[in-house]
Amino acid sequence: MPAYHSVFLGDQGVQLLGNFPLLPLRTRTRGPAYALPTLPAGSDPLDVDPESESYDILDESLSLFRANVFFRNFEIQGPADRHLIYCILFLSQCLTTVKPNQDPKSAEKALINLALEHFSLPGEPGFPLNQAYEGPRDRQDAETQRQYLSQVRQELAQRLHARLYADGTGVPNKFWMSFAKRKFMGKNL
After folding, report:
1. What is the mean pLDDT of residues 65-93?
2. Burial class (CB in 10 A: 0-12, 13-18, 19+), 75
3. Residue 139's beta-bridge partner residues?
4. Domain ranges across the chain
């Protein structure tokens, strides 16, 4: 059975930095991403319909995470798959940061700190999958990519936190936490 690929592979006119796409996001976090419309009133932010105009790569990453994390190999079919891989690696890192009995407030603080800490860009020595990613062309592209990935990381951390504590019990969801030790493609971010 092959891994699940991004539905955004066919998107045309997406800006690329190296071979990493700057896809639009539904976000309140400041950054260079084109902002998608907010969800309609009454919509469940934990279950966004893929046909909605507000559906973004972060929703897709969260919905495909638990299925794709089992794969050690992933055939990259386009730039959107590279974005999906980056998001899955970051979600894995987030899940290892949250402790099984951590209260929501301290988990939120830990996830936001993780999202804001310094990270390696594609092409830099600390980046885990440099063989599949091209680095940015110049310093300006590198700064844009850092801002975009920071925006992605912050928004993903917030959305994951909402899923981990959706049931209101004050402890993280055990079905999400069971993936804390899994490594997608044998890598950590």
Report:
1. 91
2. exposed
3. none
4. 15-35+48-186
